[in-house]
Write a structure and sequence with these properties.
CATH class: Mainly Alpha
Radius of gyration: 17 Å
CATH topology: Heme Oxygenase, Chain A
Strand content: under 5%
CATH superfamily: Heme oxygenase-like
Order of helices and strands: HHHHHHHHHH
Structural class: mainly alpha
Bound molecules: protoporphyrin IX containing FE
CATH architecture: Up-down Bundle
Number of domains: 1
Length: about 210
Amino acid sequence: MSDSSEAPQPDSDSNAVGATPTVRLREETAELHREVEQSIDWSYYLRDAHRYAKFLRQISTFLPAADQKIDQLLGKPEPWFKDRRKGKWALEDLQLLTDQSETEILHKIADSAKSITGMSYAWVQTPQDAAGVLYVLEGSTMGAMHLCKSVSRNIPFAPVGYLAAYGDQTPSRWKTTKAWLDQFLVEPHHVGQAVQAAKQMFLFYREQLGGPS
Ligand code: HEM
């Protein structure tokens, strides 16, 4: 999206002593957020059904392995965690959009998805790493609300389960996730680990969706 003014701005208490873990995550990845947001050609992906299908296919290819890592390393029983948005939601949108079965779609993306297994997320080894990945994926639901509006404008019939995330609950869900991260990442070096993992996730996301579309 060209309008980067929508992106989160650094907090005024940026160098505050005792910044909370999520404030540190936000500040230490803010530059990368801007870069990733700007390097993905959203107006390409969200312009018509064919391109939107390409976007959903790509999400369905690289996110499920990240979700799996999060589940393995964090596995929380609370509803906010269990019912969180997954890469699988993009696959469901793709099914509806293209009128294909899940098997047909999975067959088509099998080779690329196979290469993006746990191997591609080898840097996600500890619960703190997984928390950093969770931060990026859940935080991205906030930006997705803007992208969802573009899809609904350009392709009114398109399913938007993935981009709409939790609908009007998205901001409150994001608050819940941040509250959990703030109490989970107690040790400063744990926050450092989560920040590194969040940065890797931003970069991986850009690698998968950025560049020439
Ligand atoms: C055009 C695309 C995007 C727009 C317009 C956008 C916009 C935003 C906005 C407005 C927020 C602030 C939410 C708040 O008020 O707290 C936000 C937060 C966030 N976005 Fe994006 N975003 C986009 C793409 C992405 C992508 C692709 C990712 C990840 C791969 C991402 C990750 C995040 C994260 C982690 C946060 C949380 C920041 C925090 O700690 O508050 N965003 N985004």
